Amino acid sequence: MFRSFIFFSFFCLFFSCSNGDLSNVCDVNSNSYIEELFFRITTKDKSFHCGYQIQQPREPICSLSYEQVHLPENWDLVKKEVEAQSSLGVSGPEALIQYSPNSVAAAIGVGYPAFQSALSAPNGKVYLLPYNSPYIISIDPNNRSYALSASVSGGVDFIGGTLGPNGKIYLSPHQNNDFFEFNTSDETMSTIGNITMGGAAYNGGVFAPNGKIYYVPSSESIIRYYDTNTKSLGSISNPVTGGIFANGVLTPEGKIYFIPHDATNIHILDTNTETVSEHPFNFGGSGNFISGIYATNGKIYLIPYNASNVYAVDTKDNDTVTNLGNLPTPVSGMFNGVVLSPNGKIYPIPYNYSNFISIDPRTDTYNVLMANPSSASYRGGAIGVRGEIYLSPHNADRFDLLDTKPNGSFCDPIRLSPYWNKF
User: Which of 183, 208, 246, 350 has the fewest CB atoms within 10 Å around its CB?
Assistant: First the structure.
């Protein structure tokens, strides 16, 4: 705003001694021209003025709120910042750290499977979202401690959630007809709606630039949303077809790619028009894939569950599909969830796969890391303030993090961005 005022003051001084055509809004010497120019600058009007478009001064991406980062006009700044951090490299090899000596079963008072997915919040904490756990658990990355947060009924009421505006997490109903909102500022739960649905309704969701939370269809074919502007539930007219989707990936164009699990094809929701299209490539169904993530190179990486390989979908090249090749010693139920580190690498979260791995989107290559300490171990993870990944324990009876050793770090608007802070 101050820069805009200086700009206006300069124009006023430059033209103060001129006698222009006062009635012509496009005469640069007229008062009308100056007044119109000042109005467009102060209201951030981007339309054309006398054949020219006003270019507003742009704030650094890290000074914006996380609610603004996924707006399409900010993508070039997001990309620049993420790539700047990744260019700083790493301080050493990755390490798996058990950050609490307590077992998960002792912490929550019941046996596992405990959690499915994790999200970072504006208060600096990471939240583990329940599968069968009777509690949401908060993790404080500053001292790597955990605390019991809101209580829930358990029984796979929801799978995953989405960070929306104002630090609120919208839980995706799975075996429940209620839609829940978890306020991380005071750690309270509230019901925002109820719709009669079949079992296993939705898996996670995506916070879109239009302010809506879109839930990813599982057994439901209807794409439902919660509009955070109007505080109301709704649905779009186009259903999805073909089976279960496991995850949603947002692109800078405002499109959501639904990652097929039992479905064979990616379905693409354009949130600008709320229309659905289908990618022609057959990804095989049969639980082949479980997650997806967007990289700054414009590719979406599909993370395997039963498939033996990773696929990349190039959204900048007509959604061309590339097979990155087979992973070493594939098994069934390999991964569940995926996280982007400030070091620029992608980390699929191992479930039954015997090792952690990384994917480098700069070269589209794999690297096998340390061993996975158990089977059916984790489902999801979230980035902490120093770039460490807090793993969401499913059957792993321990609290673990993966230290990816980045020299750079994500500022809060990037760390909380709907592009990557999701399940």
Answer: 183
- The answer to whether 260 and 266 are in contact (CB under 8 A) is yes
Q: How far apart are CA 288 and CA 308, in angstroms?
A: 8
Mention every residue, 6+ apart, whose C-beta is less than 8 A from residue 83. 296, 344
Burial (Cβ within 10 Å: 0-12, 13-18, ≥19) of residue 93: exposed
Statement: residue 360 has pLDDT above 90:
yes
How far apart are alpha carbons 73 and 31 in whole angstroms? 32
| Range 85-411 classified under CATH 2.130.10.10 | yes
212 and 259 Cβ atoms separated by less than 8 Å: no
What token pair was written down for 252?
Answer: 């800078």
Given this model, what pLDDT does residue 315 score? 98
Question: CA–CA separation, 323 vs 300, rounded Å?
Answer: 12
Please count the residues of the chain: 423
In this structure, how many other beta carbons lie within 10 angstroms of the beta carbon of residue 16?
Answer: 8
Order of strands, sheet of 255-260, starting from the edge strand that comes earlier in the sequence: 245-250, 255-260, 267-270, 275-278
Looking at 141-288, which runs of residues are DSSP E strands? 145-151, 158-163, 168-173, 178-183, 188-194, 202-207, 212-217, 224-227, 232-235, 245-250, 255-260, 267-270, 275-278
For the stretch 116-173, pLDDT in tens is: 999 999 999 999 999 999 999 999 999 999 999 999 987 899 999 999 999 999 999 9
If we measure between CA atoms, which residue out of 311, 317, 314, 261 comes closest to residue 288?
261
* End-to-end Cα distance, the chain: 37
**pTM over 0.70, yes/no:** yes
Helix (H, G, I), strand (E, B) or coil at 35: helix
> Hey, is 210 helix, strand or coil?
coil
Triad 228, 66, 186: Cα angle to 5°: 65
Report phi then psi at 167, rounded to 5.
70, 20
Query: What are 410's two structure tokens?
Result: 């994500």
Residue 377 has which token pair? 């171990």
Listed by start position, the domains of the chain span: 2-57, 85-411
Task: Please give the order of strands across the beta sheet that includes 388-393.
Answer: 95-100, 399-403, 388-393, 378-383
Q: Write out the two tokens for 89.
A: 């490299």
